[in-house]
Amino acid sequence: MLSSIPSYGAAPLSKLFCLTRVLQVVAMIVIIGITSNFVDLIVSTGVEPPKEFVGTLSVTCIATLYICVSIAFFWSGANLGLFVMSAVDSLLLIAFIVVAVTVGKPLSYLNCYVIGNANKAAEAQSAYAFTVSVAQNLNHSGSNLDLRHWAGTTKANCFQAKTIWGLSIALW
């Protein structure tokens, strides 16, 4: 049975910390789900996924595991655990800044509302260009393909990629 939340002399801050950790886990699970869906779709076409997606997935999985472990540190009541947590939190802050900047560079130029609003000829030309690009890059390292090649293909992909970017920024 769980006891009450440790207060460390600041009960409101302790409760806020626990609430923040829960929100972080929810955001990370969403990032993992969307990113793994992207990676699955890309791998199913026979292309290696872009390094931005692989990096995002790696950092988020490690951070999610750490968040779950940090709750045990917090609940143990050991003050030394708080110092360890603050150091690891600082390292994760740096990692999520790198993820947000790396993912954000190509995505910041995409306008998701414009995708799919072109006339039929422009859509057909864009679809053809994308298909030719994928066909030329089959069995090549997809990590060299720009993130815009994957996120800019459909409106849904664009919004999902921007969701990953936004949640990475929110986790700062």
What would you note in describing this structure?
By secondary structure, the chain is mainly α. It has one domain (17-170). Helices cover 74% and strands 0% of the residues. It has six helices and no strands. The chain has helices at residues 11-44, 51-76, 79-107, 120-136, 147-151, 155-170. The radius of gyration is 20 Å and the shape is elongated. The model has no long low-confidence stretch (mean pLDDT 82). The chain crosses the membrane at residues 22-43, 55-75, 81-103.
Oligomer: single chain
> What is the typical, i.e. mean, pLDDT?
82
What's the number of extended β-strand segments? 0
Low-confidence stretches: none
What about the largest sheet? none
The residue fraction in helices comes out at over 70%
Measure the end-to-end span: 32 Å
β-strand percent reads under 5%
Count of separate structural domains:
1
- Write down the overall geometry: elongated
Order of helices and strands: HHHHHH
Cα gyration radius (Å):
20 Å
Protein name: MARVEL domain-containing protein
Keywords: Membrane, Transmembrane, Transmembrane helix
Organism: Aaosphaeria arxii CBS 175.79
Transmembrane segments: 22-43, 55-75, 81-103
Task: Reconstruct the topology from this structure.
Layout: H1 11-44, H2 51-76, H3 79-107, H4 120-136, H5 147-151, H6 155-170
Helix pairs in contact: 1-2, 1-6, 2-3, 3-6
Protein name: MARVEL domain-containing protein
Keywords: Membrane, Transmembrane, Transmembrane helix
Organism: Aaosphaeria arxii CBS 175.79
